[in-house]
Amino acid sequence: MPELPEVETTRRGIHPHVVGRKITNVIVREPRLRWPVTPALGQYLTGQTISDVSRRAKYLFLQTNAGRAMIHLGMSGSLRVLAADTVVEKHDHIDLRLDDGRVLRYRDPRRFGSFFWLAHDESHALIDSLGPEPLTDKFDGDYLFSQSRKKSVAIKQFVMDSKIVVGVGNIYANESLFMSGIRPDRKAGSISRKRYQDLALRIKAVLSAAIEAGGTTLRDFVNEDGNPGYFKHELKVYGRGGEPCFTCSILLTETRLGQRTTVFCRKCQR
């Protein structure tokens, strides 16, 4: 599933290709995504110029003078800028044709994404209750400490809660907790302010590294077959259950926490 770094890479990749371009036509081939595509999407977008591409959590926004398109890539979705005559494939559900002869194409094999229209400054229930962005000044150790008081939920589930902070997916939670030496099953309310300050810095570092590893072009994010690519940077614990810890060499423990694969070192994390 595309996580925050992958979505940010998509934003950076398409931004220079679509900002300033007028949408000349909208083609919706399949409106049945996780939620139905806004019925009058073509009416709202046709003739509009894209002024910006922004991101909130894992949602992308195409900004115009009349409002914005709110896009989620779901579990398998991608956005690509292609020549208008590029052959349409089975899972290519939405095209935004641009005035330079290209098309912004939304592909989603599992149809678990979404494509909404928000008029002017209209918000949406899916983003109204989201926590702060992890790479902003609003997110730090003091914030995590204050939000965690009296919380008995495991720390890994706590930092993966989008109401606490957005974008800390399973991979990045595993990695950040290892780097900060915190066991993923520790109660969130039992962790000190100092350790939260370190954890917040580690989360920022892991996400920033993933974004940098992703690059800023469409080629970095989309493979030749059109499927989303994933970063090949070295992971210290995720996906390495039963292998030696890079720090102490004992075998890493793999378990399930909150129905998600969790890998940690029993010696280095406490």
Short description:
The chain is an alpha+beta fold. It folds into 2 domains: 125 residues, N-terminal domain of MutM-like DNA repair proteins (Alpha-Beta Barrel); 124 residues, Helicase, Ruva Protein, domain 3. The chain is built from 8 helices and 10 strands.
Helix/strand structural class: alpha+beta
Shape: elongated
CATH class of the largest domain: Alpha Beta
Number of strands: 10
Total of domains: 2
Ends apart, CA distance between termini: 29 Å
Q: Stretches where pLDDT falls below 50 for ≥5 residues?
A: 220-230
* Beta content: 15-25%
| Cα-based radius of gyration, to the nearest Å | 20 Å
DSSP helical segment count: 8
Order of helices and strands: HEHEEEEEEEHHHHHHEE
Average pLDDT over all residues:
91
Proportion in helices: 25-40%
What would CATH call the homologous superfamily of the largest domain? MutM-like, N-terminal
Biggest sheet, open or closed, and with what strands and sense? 4 strands, antiparallel
Tell me the CATH architecture of the largest domain: Alpha-Beta Barrel
What name does the CATH topology of the largest domain carry?
N-terminal domain of MutM-like DNA repair proteins
What would you say this structure looks like, in words?
This protein is α+β, with helices and mostly antiparallel strands. It folds into 2 domains: 4-128, N-terminal domain of MutM-like DNA repair proteins; 141-264, Helicase, Ruva Protein, domain 3, CATH 1.10.8.50. 27% of the residues lie in helices and 21% in strands. It has 8 helices and 10 strands. It has helices at residues 4-18, 41-45, 125-128, 141-148, 155-159, 170-180, 193-214, 218-221, and strands spanning 23-28, 52-56, 59-63, 67-72, 78-83, 92-98, 102-107, 114-119, 253-257, 260-264. It has a 4-stranded antiparallel beta sheet. Strands 2-3-4-8 form a 4-stranded antiparallel beta sheet. Strands 9-10 form a two-stranded antiparallel sheet. A hairpin with a 2-residue loop joins β2 (52-56) and β3 (59-63). α1 (4-18) crosses α7, α4 (141-148) crosses α7 and α6 (170-180) packs across α7 (193-214). It is elongated. Residues 220-230 have low confidence and may be disordered.
